[in-house]
């Protein structure tokens, strides 16, 4: 509904202006059905109304909530109705809100929920670009960089940045001014920049405020090249190198400090209000060994009502919910907590680093968490390994009922238990993936051909990246575009 917020406020005004207290209604001598007509956005609405002979009119608040789509709860213990204009109307905790779900996708998810409620099943969610629109860790990297929240000593930064990179001299393209870019050249420039920042910024060892630091060539070079390195490690090396690399920037922090940082980032970007691609370019005055580079990132994230409600609806049907994410564990735990997903902490799996004797992170992945060698990287095939080692044993070895994902990193866990019949549905958030580089295209293509089928194995959910919200369609609108798209052609 357009202008949903103003419509909700209008509903509240109507409720109070018409004197709708229950005590007034019951105190009346006689009550008769009313012929009052109510319209919403110019259309007739189904609202039950009564005339009371003391001059008041009575409407059911639930009817207004349903027509204007605002949250409504009832506390029997205190005999109190509560209105929440920040949530959707939900008549039954076991049923999904309509929201912006694609109708066929919502119907298929709800059907699987209804059929399996209370049967001891579980589902698995990816987080970035699935449970949230856009990537919370990529957004956190921008927030961390802009606010210079690091606990790494300058003399340790080189080792941190080089962690896990098998070939520091591998070419990663050319700079804008024609230099060969390698991990080694990037690390050299980043260490130099960081050392200057560390010695000058008042939040570290210096006496200059953040505005002064932001205006410096050293900061601008550091921001652009750090982001460039993050963006390109995934293209030039295996994901087993690139995914854990960003977690090493938390070296020296406690888990509590990372969660505090992540919470601040989530709340900042959730309220940012603009979804766009921005670019950092390093200054020509400080080319360094790497030269001049540019790196892009996306602003804003959305923790949608539909997904938060989906989590809660599954739980209300006694279907257990797990998260397996390629982002760092504290980033996901912070989002789970501050944005109200409500998943128990021991049912969240994500990238984990080892802690030192003082409880601070070091730049080493913790493959031994939960058992020697059992904790795989939580991406790609590793997500299925996590299910096999940590989740399935709680359910007599059974795989997940539904898997929710968006890309290649989710394809294994979405399909590995389909042949056995354990996984009956893969829900794909439509990012218009390429068949040449992302196997989830196969599921997207099948979903596009089976829209509305009662036994569809895959369903698509569209989103509008320019607005940061889901669309009531399988078609998506990509960031910076205006035309809706479904599935890329096979060739």
Automatic annotation (TrEMBL):
One of its GO terms (molecular function) is L-phosphoserine phosphatase activity. Its cofactor is Mg(2+). It catalyses: O-phospho-D-serine + H2O = D-serine + phosphate; O-phospho-L-serine + H2O = L-serine + phosphate. GO terms for biological process: L-serine biosynthetic process. Residues 1-27 form the signal peptide. Pathway: Amino-acid biosynthesis; L-serine biosynthesis; L-serine from 3-phospho-D-glycerate: step 3/3. InterPro entries: HAD-like_SerB (IPR050582), HAD-like_sf (IPR036412), HAD_sf (IPR023214). Keywords: Amino-acid biosynthesis, Hydrolase, Magnesium, Metal-binding, Serine biosynthesis, Signal. Gene3D superfamilies: 1.20.1440.320, HAD superfamily/HAD-like. One of its GO terms (cellular component) is cytoplasm. Its EC number is 3.1.3.3. The keyword Nucleus does not apply. It is an enzyme of class 3 (hydrolase). Belongs to the HAD-like hydrolase superfamily. SerB family. This is phosphoserine phosphatase. It comes from Intestinimonas butyriciproducens. The lineage of its organism: Bacteria, Bacillati, Bacillota, Clostridia, Eubacteriales.
């Amino acid at each position: 509904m357009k202008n949903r917020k103003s419509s909700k406020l209008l509903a509240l005004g109507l409720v109070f202006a018409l004197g709708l207290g229950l005590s007034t209604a019951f105190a009346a001598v006689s009550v008769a059905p009313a012929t009052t007509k109510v319209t919403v956005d110019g259309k007739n609405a189904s609202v039950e109304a009564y005339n009371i002979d003391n001059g008041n009119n009575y409407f059911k608040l639930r009817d207004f909530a349903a027509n204007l789509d605002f949250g409504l709860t009832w506390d029997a213990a205190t005999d109190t109705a509560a209105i929440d204009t920040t949530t959707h109307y939900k008549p039954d905790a076991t049923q999904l809100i309509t929201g912006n779900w694609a109708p066929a996708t919502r119907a298929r998810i709800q059907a699987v929920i209804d059929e399996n409620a209370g049967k001891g099943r579980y589902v698995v969610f990816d987080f970035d670009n699935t449970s949230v629109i856009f990537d919370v860790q990529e957004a956190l990297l921008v927030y961390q960089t802009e606010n210079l929240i690091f606990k790494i000593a300058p003399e340790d930064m080189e080792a941190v940045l080089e962690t896990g990179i098998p070939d520091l001299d591998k070419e990663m393209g050319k700079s804008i001014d024609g230099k060969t870019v390698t991990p080694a050249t990037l690390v050299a420039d980043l260490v130099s920049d960081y050392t200057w920042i560390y010695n000058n910024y008042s939040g570290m060892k210096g006496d200059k405020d953040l505005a002064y630091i932001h205006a410096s060539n050293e900061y601008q070079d550091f921001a652009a090249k750090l982001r460039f390195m993050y963006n390109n490690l995934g293209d030039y090396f295996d994901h087993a190198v690139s995914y854990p690399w960003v977690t090493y920037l938390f070296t020296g922090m406690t888990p509590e400090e990372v969660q505090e940082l992540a919470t601040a980032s989530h709340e900042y970007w959730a309220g940012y209000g603009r979804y766009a691609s921005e670019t950092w370019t390093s200054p020509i005055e400080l080319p360094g060994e790497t030269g001049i580079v540019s790196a892009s990132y996306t602003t804003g994230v959305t923790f949608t009502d539909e997904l938060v409600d989906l989590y809660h609806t599954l739980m209300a049907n006694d279907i257990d919910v797990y998260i397996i994410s390629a982002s760092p564990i504290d980033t996901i735990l912070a989002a789970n907590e501050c944005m109200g997903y409500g998943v128990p902490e021991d049912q969240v799996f994500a990238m984990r680093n080892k802690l030192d004797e003082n409880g601070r992170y070091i730049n080493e992945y913790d493959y031994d968490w939960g058992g020697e060698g059992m904790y795989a990287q939580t991406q790609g095939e590793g997500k299925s390994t996590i299910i096999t080692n940590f989740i399935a044993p709680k359910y007599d070895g059974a795989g997940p009922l539904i898997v929710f994902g968006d890309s290649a990193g989710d394809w294994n866990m979405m399909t590995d238990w389909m042949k056995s019949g354990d996984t009956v549905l893969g829900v794909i958030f439509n990012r218009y993936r390429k068949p040449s580089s992302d196997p989830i295209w196969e599921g997207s293509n099948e979903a596009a051909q089976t829209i509305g089928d009662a036994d569809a194995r895959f369903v698509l959910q569209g989103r509008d990246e320019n607005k940061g919200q889901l669309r009531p369609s399988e078609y998506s609108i990509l960031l910076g575009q205006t035309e809706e798209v479904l599935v890329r052609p096979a060739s």
